[in-house]
Every structure is written in structure tokens, then in C-alpha cells.
């Protein structure tokens, strides 16, 4: 494992895309070479970094973590991350979830049970979540994928038009097609060989982690004042998913 | 339907040579039927009946047969109404066409490769009977002739009589094996027709039953029709068969839709309506105010609609709450004192802002009541003075400056600012560009001042030196505003 590192140059322009794989004993040895204080400081920095990065709900890349926080403590990376995860869980009730195992991209989700209570902070993020849940419900009920024309047609009925400036959301098209996609709530892929280009809407990985088909089905059921089992195939699908 | 009599046993002499287009139409009809039958037949392995194929096709040159097959597929969505039989129940033409349109839900226009395979299929169907047909089949080898089919489609608008008449002589020629001639043939055909009509009737009556996903009735009906078709040799029965097929395919399409809709018995329209209701839409009584299209519900959506929905949505998400510093960054000034100062200096009147630099003063709570009393006293003083001398506004510095005490001067300015803020007095610059103050007389004027004119805020600063200078320059000898403890009212 040391051999892997030897290929890297020391210093600021280290290659942070590669994290040395280490055995626990290796980590232990590395840990001993550093003081507890230093490690804890790094853990705190990482926790702060994650919290701030999560403000905009844009997924956090491991590369960034290494470059901006861990830096020269790469050898104890796994230990720092573990401790940071524990802190997040114990102090904030949050957890780091990997949504892309290939590129190592993480998001923070809440592990606390949802509280039935009035949301004290209602801001534009709340409104955007309303729009998002509507889109996610539509996609799910239509069989986990929907064409963009169908989605916009549906949104039109809710007084949301892609061409017009919405009084709450502003540029809705940008919000849906760019922001939600960047946040990994939605996955929008172009359908090949279509002209003018059409897109396919699907759930993004963040949506899959932050909510579930069962939850969305219950939302739809609540809105329509029916039982979730009313929609047979979606119900079965939701059940199978848990 | 009974316009022609040839099949009642009499020899029929065509009034004119059947044109190729007419023949095409006949072939079209039968091809369509066959193809549709194939498309709808339940079991993939069912071999076409080889017994007695319909007769008329084979006199046509092969290319035309092939092209007609192609035309059949195209015509499946564009079947001219007159091709379809007029039944006793006398349905109008258009529904036939529509129904036939509905027959091919997934393939509105078939590209040539699919056509080729379908035509091969059709050829196989009726290619086994005669040697002639076998020869034709060898020659065919998978030709696709879209141009010819287009031509066939163009000449769609032919009269039924011609086409039917055109059929007859051709059907006479190659005798279907196994069918007897003359009267027996006719009885047999009548029987077939009856059976077809019964079948059609039963399908129509039991529509709902057939639509149910649990029943196989539709398949059974199709099987029955298949069997009946084996005895068909004339156009009339074939027409009935086509009619039945239209009906069956229509039902099939509905069943397919229902099947799909089981997966999505999700009506997005009602969902949208329900969402709007949840968001608190205020539905108006009058409709059609702005319902330009597709019955969009009228109504007024409150501004917090999406927030309400978002609040509900949060219950279904495990979203990590965003992390924000409560007090912001270090650089901003503490907000609380600023608000207080603003309250003090809200409108020291004035049409123009003064250029004097600002000096912030703090208001002290403990002197609140005393301040109010003072303010009132000064206001009274001001008004009294003005009553005595209505046209002359008072020179500001004359009013506020106390030559004996700097502190009192400042306090006076402070109290006067309250009066100005409340709009009870007005501060402006006179012709010499010196500030003067005058009370605002009537209520309307006061209100106007509040709303129409913009509140100008001025912050006055006064240093000891300046105060001394003012006293000297303007030769102020006595304070106009008496100190609070003395109740005397002094005039300037």
C-alpha cells in the first residue's frame, strides 16, 4: 500500500483522485504517527465542510473532500471519515450516503424520524420541494419514467409553465432541468433520434435515497384520498422495493 | 347491400372490365382481414387455414398482390369506409374507418421491412391452394412495392358496386376446392353469413364481458370466426368477416388499453385537481373565464400554495436540513441598535437632504415618558408662537438653540425631531437657504405629507464649536424652549 503512495508527489499538487487502500493495521499505524488533536481537528473540519457543502444540496465528491479538507492526512482518510460519520449521526442525526460508487459522490440524509409538526422555517426550498414531489409522484405513477412533454403537460395544470416566469419559482424550466438534476433529484436523459429533442424523466439517485416509492405512493394516496393499494401495480412495486 | 343479384345463381356479366384498382380494393379488403386476423390471433403457432383460400387474389399479377398486402397494412389505418360492409344494423361509415384505425394501435405506419414480412405472411396464408399461386409465390420473393401501394390508395374512392361486381367474375374462376356448386353452395353461404351475424351480435351484446381482463371470450370469438372463415369463398361473407374483425380488433384495443391502465389507473388530471385543492385553490363559480383549453380549472391559487405543498412534502423526505449560521457573518453590524436609531430619525421633514454628516444618538428608555411630555410641550409652544405670528415660520436654530447649554440644545433638537417625524411640523429651507420650521396646519396636509411626499431622513450633527458659532452668528441670546422645570412660555 505504501507502494501506491510512492507514485504520488508530495505537496499541494498531489493527486487527490486516488485514495490509498489501507488495511486496518496500516491505518492504525498511520494514526499513531499523528496526534489525536490533529485528527480530531480534521474530523471537525470535515463535518463542517460536509454541512456547508450540503446547503445547496449538490452532492459532495470525494475528490473535493480529499483536496480541501483531508489534504496531507490522506493516509488516515478512512478513519477521519468514519469519525466524521459518527459525529454527524450522533450530533446532527445525519448520515453520509454514497450515491455514486464509481466516482464516490456523497449526500447527506437525515436519519431522524419525521416529526409531525409545523415546519418552522418555510422558505423557497420548501416550495421547491413541493414542486419536486409533484414531479416525482408523476414519474413514479406513470411507470418510473415519463416523457418531458407529459411532465410539462401535467405541470401546466398546476399553473406552472416552462416558458413563463413563475411567481414563486421564477425560471421553472431551469429549476427542473438544471437545479434538480444537479442536485441529483431528477435524472433527465435525452431520447435518441428525436427531433426536436425529447427527454426522459426519471428519479435521480438522491430522490431514491431521500424518499421511497412507498412514501411517494402514500403521498399520492393522501392527496387523492384513497388507499395506496388502490393503484395495484404501483403498490406492488412499492412493496417490493422496501 | 342487396343491390347486386349475381350470386343468386344467375350468370353475371360485368358491365365493365374490372379495373386493377377495383381488384386492388378487393385484395385490400381480404389482405387487411388476414393481416388483422394474424395480428389478433391469440396463439402464435396457429397455422393459417390452408383449405380454401379466398379466391380472387390469384388472378392478379404477383406484384400487385404483394403491393396490395402492403397497401393493406397502410390501409389498416386508412381504410376507406365503403370497403367495409354495410350491415343490417346500418352503422355509419366513419366509425368503421375509425375502428379500423384503432386496429393497429402500435404500428400506424409500417416501415418496409415489416411490410415485407407481413406480406410474406399474407402470401403464405393464401399461397398454398393452387399451382398458380405457388408460381406466384416463387416469383414474389419478398418484393416491396410502395409506389404501387400508393397508387392503390389513391384510387380508394371507388363505388362499392363496381368493386363488388368486379369481385364476382374473378371469384367464379378458380373454384375453391371442396365447395359444391349451385344451390348447396348458396345455402352454405347463407349459413355462414348467419353465423357471422350471430357472432357479431353476440360480441356486441357481451361487450363488457369481453372487456374484462379475466375472460377469454374475445379469443374464443376470434377462434370461431377463424373457423367460419374457412368456409368463406365469396365477398359477401368475407365482408361480414371483415366487419367482425373490425369489431374484435376494436375490443382488443380496448382490452389492451385497460391492461395498460391497470398499471396506471393513475389519472393525472384528477391528481392535478386534488393537488390544487390541497394547495388551497379558491375555485370560482364562473367557468370559462380563462379556460382556453382542456378544461383547466378556474380559480385563484393563493401565494402560499406551493409552500403548503412543500410543507406536506417534507414529511415524505429524509432531507438533511440546510446548515446556516444564525447570525450571519461577522462583518455586518448588529441590527438592534440600528432599528432604534431609525425610529428616532424617521422624518426630520425637509424637501432636501442636508449635507451635514451624521451623528447617531441613542435613545434611552428610562426617559421615554419624559420625552413624550417634552415633545408635547414643545409642540404647544410652537403652535402658540405660530398662532401669534402665522405667516412666519420660525428659524430652526432660534427655536432649538439654547445659548446657555449645549446639552439642552441637543435635547431640543431631539424633541423637535419627534414633532417632525409625526408630521406635525415641517422643516424646510427658506430663501436664504436657512432652515425654518413651521407647524402643519390641517389634518389633510398632514396626511398628504405622510403619503405623497417621500420621507426624507436627515441626521444632524452638532459639535460644541459649531454650537458656539451658531450662537454667535445668529446672535441667539435666549432659548426659545424653556428648560423643562420651568413652566414659563417664552416667545422669541
From TrEMBL, chain A:
It comes from the Eukaryota. Residues 39-238 form the MAGE domain. Residues 1-34 are annotated as: Disordered. Residues 1-10 have a biased composition (Basic and acidic residues). Coiled coil: none annotated. Residues 19-30 have a biased composition (Polar residues). This is NSE3 homolog, SMC5-SMC6 complex component. It comes from Gallus gallus.
Automatic annotation (TrEMBL), chain B:
It is found in: Chromosome, Telomere; Nucleus. Residues 1-23, 79-107, 127-189, 334-357 are annotated as: Disordered. GO terms for biological process: DNA recombination; DNA repair. Keywords: Chromosome, DNA damage, DNA recombination, DNA repair, Nucleus, Telomere. Residues 88-100 have a biased composition (Basic residues). Residues 152-170 have a biased composition (Acidic residues). Residues 241-294 form the Nse4/EID protein Nse3/MAGE-binding domain. GO terms for cellular component: chromosome, telomeric region; nuclear body; nucleus; Smc5-Smc6 complex. Residues 339-357 have a biased composition (Basic and acidic residues). Residues 394-481 form the Non-structural maintenance of chromosome element 4 C-terminal domain. It comes from the Eukaryota. Component of the SMC5-SMC6 complex, that promotes sister chromatid alignment after DNA damage and facilitates double-stranded DNA breaks (DSBs) repair via homologous recombination between sister chromatids. Belongs to the NSE4 family. Component of the SMC5-SMC6 complex. PANTHER family: NON-STRUCTURAL MAINTENANCE OF CHROMOSOMES ELEMENT 4. This is Non-structural maintenance of chromosomes element 4. The gene is NSMCE4A.
Amino acid at each position: 500500500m505504501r507502494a501506491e503512495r510512492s507514485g504520488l508527489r508530495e505537496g499541494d499538487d498531489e493527486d487527490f483522485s486516488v485514495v490509498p487502500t489501507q488495511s486496518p493495521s496500516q491505518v492504525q499505524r498511520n494514526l499513531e504517527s499523528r496526534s489525536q488533536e490533529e485528527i480530531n481537528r480534521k474530523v471537525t473540519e470535515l463535518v463542517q465542510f460536509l454541512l456547508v457543502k450540503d446547503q445547496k444540496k449538490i452532492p459532495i465528491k470525494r475528490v473535493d473532500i480529499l483536496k480541501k479538507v483531508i489534504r496531507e492526512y490522506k493516509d488516515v482518510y478512512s478513519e477521519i471519515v468514519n469519525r466524521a460519520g459518527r459525529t454527524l449521526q450522533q450530533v446532527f442525526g445525519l448520515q453520509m450516503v454514497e450515491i455514486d460508487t464509481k466516482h464516490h459522490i456523497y449526500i447527506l440524509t437525515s436519519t431522524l424520524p419525521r416529526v409531525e409538526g409545523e415546519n418552522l422555517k418555510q422558505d423557497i426550498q420548501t416550495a421547491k420541494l413541493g414542486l419536486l414531489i409533484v414531479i416525482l409522484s408523476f414519474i413514479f405513477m406513470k411507470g418510473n419514467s415519463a416523457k418531458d412533454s407529459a411532465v410539462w403537460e401535467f405541470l401546466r395544470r398546476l399553473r406552472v409553465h416552462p416558458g413563463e416566469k413563475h411567481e414563486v419559482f421564477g425560471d421553472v424550466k431551469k429549476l427542473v432541468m438544471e437545479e434538480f438534476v444537479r442536485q441529483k433529484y431528477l435524472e433527465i436523459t435525452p431520447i435518441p433520434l428525436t427531433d426536436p429533442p425529447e427527454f426522459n424523466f426519471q428519479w435521480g439517485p438522491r430522490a431514491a435515497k431521500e424518499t421511497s416509492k412507498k412514501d411517494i405512493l402514500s403521498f399520492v394516496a393522501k392527496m387523492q384520498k384513497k388507499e395506496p393499494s388502490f393503484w395495484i401495480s404501483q403498490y406492488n412495486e412499492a412493496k417490493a422495493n422496501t | 347491400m342487396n343491390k347486386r343479384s349475381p350470386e343468386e345463381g344467375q350468370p353475371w356479366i360485368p358491365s365493365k372490365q374490372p379495373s386493377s384498382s377495383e381488384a386492388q380494393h378487393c385484395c385490400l379488403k381480404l389482405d387487411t382481414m388476414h393481416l388483422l386476423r394474424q395480428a389478433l390471433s391469440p396463439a402464435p403457432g396457429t397455422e393459417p387455414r390452408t383449405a380454401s383460400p379466398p379466391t380472387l387474389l390469384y388472378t392478379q399479377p404477383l406484384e400487385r398482390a404483394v403491393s396490395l398486402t402492403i397497401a393493406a397494412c397502410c390501409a389498416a389505418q386508412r381504410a376507406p369506409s365503403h370497403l367495409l360492409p354495410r350491415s343490417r344494423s346500418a352503422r355509419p361509415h366513419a366509425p368503421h374507418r375509425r375502428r379500423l384505425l384503432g386496429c393497429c394501435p402500435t404500428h400506424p405506419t409500417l416501415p418496409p421491412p415489416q411490410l415485407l414480412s407481413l406480406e410474406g405472411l399474407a402470401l403464405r396464408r393464401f399461397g398454398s391452394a393452387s399451382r398458380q399461386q405457388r408460381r406466384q409465390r416463387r416469383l414474389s420473393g419478398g418484393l416491396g412495392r410502395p409506389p404501387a401501394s400508393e397508387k392503390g390508395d389513391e384510387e380508394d374512392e371507388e363505388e362499392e358496386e363496381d368493386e363488388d361486381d368486379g369481385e364476382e367474375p374473378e371469384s367464379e374462376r378458380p373454384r375453391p376446392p371442396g365447395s359444391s356448386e349451385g344451390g348447396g353452395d348458396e345455402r352454405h353461404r347463407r349459413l355462414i353469413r348467419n353465423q357471422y351475424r350471430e357472432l357479431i351480435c353476440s360480441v356486441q351484446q357481451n361487450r363488457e364481458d369481453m372487456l374484462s381482463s379475466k375472460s377469454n371470450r374475445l379469443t374464443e370469438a376470434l377462434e370461431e370466426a377463424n373457423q367460419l372463415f374457412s368456409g368463406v369463398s365469396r365477398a359477401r361473407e368475407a365482408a361480414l368477416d371483415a366487419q367482425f374483425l373490425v369489431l374484435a380488433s376494436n375490443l382488443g384495443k380496448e382490452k389492451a388499453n385497460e391492461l395498460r391502465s391497470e398499471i396506471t389507473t393513475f389519472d393525472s388530471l384528477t391528481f392535478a385537481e386534488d393537488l390544487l385543492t390541497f394547495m388551497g385553490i379558491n375555485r370560482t363559480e364562473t367557468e370559462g373565464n380563462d379556460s382556453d383549453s382542456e378544461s383547466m380549472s378556474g380559480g385563484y391559487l393563493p401565494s402560499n400554495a406551493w409552500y403548503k405543498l412543500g410543507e406536506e412534502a417534507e414529511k415524505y423526505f429524509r432531507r438533511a436540513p440546510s446548515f446556516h449560521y444564525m447570525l450571519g457573518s461577522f462583518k455586518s453590524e448588529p441590527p438592534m441598535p440600528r432599528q432604534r436609531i431609525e425610529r428616532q430619525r424617521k422624518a426630520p421633514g425637509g424637501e432636501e437632504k442636508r449635507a451635514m454628516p451624521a451623528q447617531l444618538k441613542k435613545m434611552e428608555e428610562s426617559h421615554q415618558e419624559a420625552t413624550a411630555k417634552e415633545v408635547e410641550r414643545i409642540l404647544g409652544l410652537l403652535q402658540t408662537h405660530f398662532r401669534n405670528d402665522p405667516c412666519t415660520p420660525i428659524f430652526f436654530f432660534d427655536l432649538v438653540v439654547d445659548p446657555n447649554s449645549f446639552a439642552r440644545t441637543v435635547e431640543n433638537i431631539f424633541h423637535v425631531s419627534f414633532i417632525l417625524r409625526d408630521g406635525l411640523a415641517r422643516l424646510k429651507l427658506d430663501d436664504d437657504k436657512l432652515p425654518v420650521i413651521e407647524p402643519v396646519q390641517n389634518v389633510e396636509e398632514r396626511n398628504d405629507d405622510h403619503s405623497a411626499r417621500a420621507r426624507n431622513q436627515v441626521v444632524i450633527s452638532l459639535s460644541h464649536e459649531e454650537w458656539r458659532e451658531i450662537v454667535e452668528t445668529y446672535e441667539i441670546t435666549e432659548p426659545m424652549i424653556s428648560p423643562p422645570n420651568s413652566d414659563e412660555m417664552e416667545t422669541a
